[in-house]
Prior knowledge:
single chain, 282 residues, mainly alpha
Amino acid sequence: xxxxxxxxxxxxxxxxxxxxxxxxxxxxxxxxxxxxxxxxxxxxxxxxxxxxxxxxxxxxxxxxxxxxxxxxxxxxxxxxxxxxxxxxxxxxxxxxxxxxxxxxxxxxxxxxxxxxxxxxxxxxxxxxxxxxxxxxxxxxxxxxxxxxxxxxxxxxxxxxxxxxxxxxxxxxxxxxxxxxxxxxxxxxxxxxxxxxxxxxxxxxxxxxxxxxxxxxxxxxxxxxxxxxxxxxxxxxxxxxxxxxxxxxxxxxxxxxxxxxxxxxxxxxxxxxxxxxxxxxxx
Length: 282
């Protein structure tokens, strides 16, 4: 399959999920979620996103140095904000990371190594996230706790990612990768819990945490439309399986999507500043 065809397939996949949800649940849960978004939730998301962005930038900068390329934290934070904004507003959910890889590779004078650094940054972070998800699903009540094949597949996937990354990156980078990734996942979970409360859920937090992690794992699937699709689909399934109602899951995912979009807006400022500075060097 050509890259263009694959890009179309990813977009169609996200649209199909959204279409199926609207067909089954109607537009109500989507509109309800948008109506429930308030300033408090957006402020919390913005503050938490600042922390998670710093953690991710920290992880990336350590991975970059492990591969022999320099990167300051200030540059890493700005680039990460920009990539998050692009991931949130463009189809596929990975174009921001592609831009980050190309931009840093060019600035460092080593495009292949810059690209590898971004790939290992993303893959290592997702590996830690999968391992944390499996541990939480085993420890706390969740709709898939009794589903051994699902947990086994997740565990194997997480371990494979960790092993592959462990062989590619210096051992000295792993403490930072694990700590930074864990803190970032914690921030995303907190944001999801705030979204659930904003959407009207009164479910105990101990029951919402596993659902949040399942949704976060689904969000890493590169088959979405500006972040929409798998997130809402997994939220609908997980909330329904937990007896909380698919509509509640979709509304929560919609609130979360709005919170994430607003929290990524500093990345738009970084992008605009970069576009304004570029002509001045011509």
